[in-house]
């Protein structure tokens, strides 16, 4: 117990005691207060240490009253556990609890009042109450005055909160400070302590009831007081009281239920003995024993009735008030315990009057409450004996349960699906066929736990084959094959009828946990595939065989790589040792079997392009350390079949799968590396020889000439070489020298087919990429480096010519190819070892750079706003998505050139112009380019933003002057201003980018006043200041005044701010100056004299602006020239975190610059 620290609480308690009602007697008052040990006890329980400590005053053993029994108890206590309080014992385990509770029971027999008050103090300590308990004896529960004074009030004057309530025969008053009512109490503490305390507190209540069940639990004193205490404090306004005492009450009811169950067992056994005695003959029957058994049965029934009465009081007095509590943790406790009560004591609690509470709370807004409801129902539906009592509940709440599979909380949805699996297993007629079809589609959902639960539902509903009568006479292997055949048939039927998805891998992943044995039965799957298809018979049709091949490949992938799939989350990413061993065993089994069977499958299905494309992926998952890998004959057979397939098919799916498979089989360390490498080289050599013969005839003249059959043959062979070249290094066959003549100007001008040009561009770009990637190995002399640069130059020129080709695919491929080559070349220049030969510098020509920029702007940013971006509620078709994907690839390739420094940063200005118009489609790419270029060169990136805004402003100005109407390529003034706001938001750290922001303002001021003259009323570009004002919020306070001073130097001597033409200047000035400086700004603008800043003291400024920094030193310029000069930044100074602030010298005298050259500022000359 933790005592109150102030004397006010004691006076308050005494006043309450003196004002007790007529039904109370002051002679029986007992004041229970703690000492300083209360805090220590609570801290010890948190640290879970066991130390010697004395009992509180009311629990100390009195020698006069204890007698000999007290001495024995003390000896036993010293033997087992040291003297601790009830609150401390929770940290010592169940055995220590039993010892201390036994001692408490023994003390209760000698002094009920003190022991009961100690138990009450224990419960209040567990709620985190830091206050004082005052108890008074009450002779009767009746009396209006007694019930009228049962209050809970706040005393704001004394800073106390107190609650008075009746726990017969006590009137208890709990007083505690107001500031102690915080959210941190034992059950709600952060970290694992709250879970530990929840467990230990629940264990203490159960042990207390278990130790008291044969003695004092039926004395009509203890339980009455405890239940009154729990009932009163669980109804308190204090959250800690409600939470702690509701948990104690529900755990008490659960423990009482255990006592009632043991009594029921005793009654049943006694009734059996009574029946046995009654069946005996009159001679053998004992009347005394019958009477004794009858008396025992009656006593046990009376005790059970008393226990059930206690349970009913707790349920009606506490549960019915708290199951709808505002605190979700309390509602969760109620639902969790209610499910336990229904399962353990179904004769009393499992009926519709109790089930309705679970049904109602399934609509709770808190996910944890709904989860507890689902877990409770799983325990009920999992017991077949309880199902008849759930019929009405099932019919009433079935729709709600099914709808909860779409719950926003994933765990609730998963447990709901598991509940429906139990319902479908135990009750066949509950779920309709429509419900089944709705639930089975969850095997394709994006959350793997929910998909796995739906897979269990599918497996138990459709794929669990039962043994038939005809299988009794069959062998075990035949029975297994028949069951597998039936399950496969059902799985294929489900997949074809659902038509919900086209990816079998998600279906296999959903069934993997429950149906892994079926999916990993590769011998049966392959034997079914090797059978002849018979649409009329009992075999599989061609469509079913195609789906079965997909299932086979997906199961092989799942066994080799695990459940990680793109687009599906929630899978386990790290495997334990047992799972890794199981994965290796599965890979070994599939390698040993499929290495033998796969050539047969390829031979049988060689006619089908789709099936072959799937089957040829299987060797990628083989385990190279298997014994079958050493068998070169089987590997040669597999490679030969793969070569035969490549001779028949040239589809991209087959070629890409074959190229990756050869790459996997040719990996270093594999047993069949030499065999497969030789077969691959032979295959590539045959393609090269064939292509040389074809090109020799087609390029015999000045141009390109080939008939349709030869043209198709050239395209097919080139496509095969290109696909293999993307995975394998084919540089030794000199593909560049063979294919480059097809890109000559004569061949392109004389009508070379677009299909050939596209394939040739891809082949040559891959050749150069391999050459650049292996520069450290290939470039052993300067001649080879020069030859490599020559190839780069030739390819760039050819790609430049192809950018104006009539075919869009050729133009796009030329653009992507040259961008990839230039990016790879830049990377090699930065990583090559200077001690050896490396790639020589190659810079794209200015014409090529302009052509790339023009191509990116004209082919990426096309169409109006509504053409390129999907409207709300409109689903774009596949063609639009594919077109958008191609355009994003083009933009990304161009942006990489700017980010890596291949092209100048200023070229990004053209791209930034489209940021607002195409933000939905390309905003992420443009924003990433902005951040990357800013990391490389902050000033250069800021200049690009300025250039972008100024060009947009000039285009708008020219369009307005012409007056020809709105041009689709010209943006409005509002759009330009919004673009400037987006640019300003990208400057996050004001100190880090202060120099950039000042440069933007300086350039904007010069641009706005560059064509000003005394004859005109206002400069023509003055409205640009409105756009520039979007960057004013990114200036530091001192920088705003510096920029304002620089603005004053460009402002004319006589300026009337009341004129409409000068409104942008007024708006810009207002954005630079604070509210307190507005009057000063107006006086400066309307006066004939310019502000004189020379007399301001730098030291005074520094004191006034402590903590601010000046990023630049501004020198005056001639505003009539209108020329923009780049700032020269001193490399010897950097912007410190907090440099000393100083005033800016606007005159820019050399003396002031020399005097202040050593302070930590950055000097920028304008």
UniProtKB/TrEMBL annotation:
<dbReference type="GO" id="GO:0051301">
    <property type="term" value="P:cell division"/>
</dbReference>
<feature type="region of interest" description="Disordered">
    <location>
        <begin position="1084"/>
        <end position="1166"/>
    </location>
</feature>
<dbReference type="InterPro" id="IPR013721">
    <property type="entry name" value="STAG"/>
</dbReference>
<keyword id="KW-0539">Nucleus</keyword>
<dbReference type="GO" id="GO:0000785">
    <property type="term" value="C:chromatin"/>
</dbReference>
<keyword id="KW-0132">Cell division</keyword>
<keyword id="KW-0158">Chromosome</keyword>
<dbReference type="Pfam" id="PF21581">
    <property type="entry name" value="SCD"/>
</dbReference>
<dbReference type="InterPro" id="IPR020839">
    <property type="entry name" value="SCD"/>
</dbReference>
<comment type="subunit">
    <text>Part of the cohesin complex which is composed of a heterodimer between a SMC1 protein (SMC1A or SMC1B) and SMC3, which are attached via their hinge domain, and RAD21 which link them at their heads, and one STAG protein.</text>
</comment>
<keyword id="KW-0131">Cell cycle</keyword>
<dbReference type="InterPro" id="IPR039662">
    <property type="entry name" value="Cohesin_Scc3/SA"/>
</dbReference>
<dbReference type="GO" id="GO:0000775">
    <property type="term" value="C:chromosome, centromeric region"/>
</dbReference>
<keyword id="KW-0159">Chromosome partition</keyword>
<dbReference type="GO" id="GO:0003682">
    <property type="term" value="F:chromatin binding"/>
</dbReference>
<dbReference type="GO" id="GO:0008278">
    <property type="term" value="C:cohesin complex"/>
</dbReference>
<dbReference type="Pfam" id="PF24571">
    <property type="entry name" value="HEAT_SCC3-SA"/>
</dbReference>
<comment type="similarity">
    <text>Belongs to the SCC3 family.</text>
</comment>
<dbReference type="InterPro" id="IPR016024">
    <property type="entry name" value="ARM-type_fold"/>
</dbReference>
<feature type="compositionally biased region" description="Polar residues">
    <location>
        <begin position="22"/>
        <end position="44"/>
    </location>
</feature>
<comment type="function">
    <text>Component of cohesin complex, a complex required for the cohesion of sister chromatids after DNA replication. The cohesin complex apparently forms a large proteinaceous ring within which sister chromatids can be trapped. At anaphase, the complex is cleaved and dissociates from chromatin, allowing sister chromatids to segregate.</text>
</comment>
<feature type="compositionally biased region" description="Polar residues">
    <location>
        <begin position="1110"/>
        <end position="1133"/>
    </location>
</feature>
<dbReference type="Pfam" id="PF08514">
    <property type="entry name" value="STAG"/>
</dbReference>
<dbReference type="GO" id="GO:0007062">
    <property type="term" value="P:sister chromatid cohesion"/>
</dbReference>
<dbReference type="GO" id="GO:0005634">
    <property type="term" value="C:nucleus"/>
</dbReference>
<keyword id="KW-0175">Coiled coil</keyword>
<feature type="compositionally biased region" description="Low complexity">
    <location>
        <begin position="1"/>
        <end position="20"/>
    </location>
</feature>
<feature type="domain" description="SCD">
    <location>
        <begin position="319"/>
        <end position="404"/>
    </location>
</feature>
<dbReference type="GO" id="GO:0007059">
    <property type="term" value="P:chromosome segregation"/>
</dbReference>
<dbReference type="InterPro" id="IPR056396">
    <property type="entry name" value="HEAT_SCC3-SA"/>
</dbReference>
<feature type="region of interest" description="Disordered">
    <location>
        <begin position="1"/>
        <end position="74"/>
    </location>
</feature>
<feature type="coiled-coil region">
    <location>
        <begin position="276"/>
        <end position="313"/>
    </location>
</feature>
<protein>
    <recommendedName>
        <fullName>Cohesin subunit SA</fullName>
    </recommendedName>
</protein>
